[in-house]
Amino acid sequence: MNKPTSASSLYDRVSRVIPKAEWLTFQDDVEAILELKRRHNAVILAHNYQTPEIFHGVADIVGDSLALARKATEVKADIIVLAGVHFMAETAKLLNPEKTVLIPDLEAGCSLAESITPEDIALLRQAHPGVPVVTYVNTSAAVKAASDICCTSGNARQVVESLGVPKVLMLPDEYLARNVARETNVELIAWHGHCEVHELFTADDIRQLRENYPGVTVLAHPECPPDVVEAADFAGSTAVMSVYVGRKRPSRVVLLTECSMSDNVAVHHPDVEFVRPCNLCPHMKRITLGNIRKALEEGRHEVTVDPAIAADARRAVERMLAI
Hints:
Number of helices: 15
CATH superfamily of the largest domain: NadA-like
Helix content: 40-55%
Strand content: 5-15%
Radius of gyration: 20 Å
Low-confidence stretches: none
């Protein structure tokens, strides 16, 4: 996406979600980042959960995990800065092995990625011989390498059904697997991983929202518990949620996902009231304008993938992208 050339000209875009006084504290970093990107032939990929000053201020490519994975293959720059969590940076490196991939904070992790190991997958394959393994992209490169194919919340059902088999191991998000299982005839064997953001939402939250905000449309992410998804009006990935708001234009909406998602979607829809009972992802919030600037100034922190696992991990991601 093309960006204006100065921080001051960017403010109109985010003025509904960032107070002017707060934007003034961001302006020096925004200006510096725009110049550093030009100087180093760098691009910034930002996930939908990044804060608006990053998402709308300095990012060149934005989206959910699937969109970032696809668009990463089209990047022409020498340097990719991943404004997101570590598994996303690894995926960008897998798809761009010749490019430098930086993550502004090495501690930007993911509860799902930490919930499963390649050794766990080996044991599951022993317990379920011949059953293919579909792994959510919210996993390490090593786990991807131990899998047959990857998926995202936006294409999970499509990936599962593309295999043409009656039974699939779907890892590691238990709730995503259970929600997809309701939509397909394929038997899904789930793991016990959960997203620390989405597992906190409850069906009672939705009941209270409907009582306090009459007529509200409730959109839930498929990493939420099944009773939450069932009680919502619609469930889908962050990209699908954004499309839903744009097409349906509900007068009042709540997005049951990470906090910054509502702010980023609201920028484009001034006519929609966004109710914001959300949960914060502490890992996503480790990424800031300040450490993006440092990443570009100092070339830190470079993300690498062990060549011993890179080929198999890349194959699992590319199989997903080919569907």
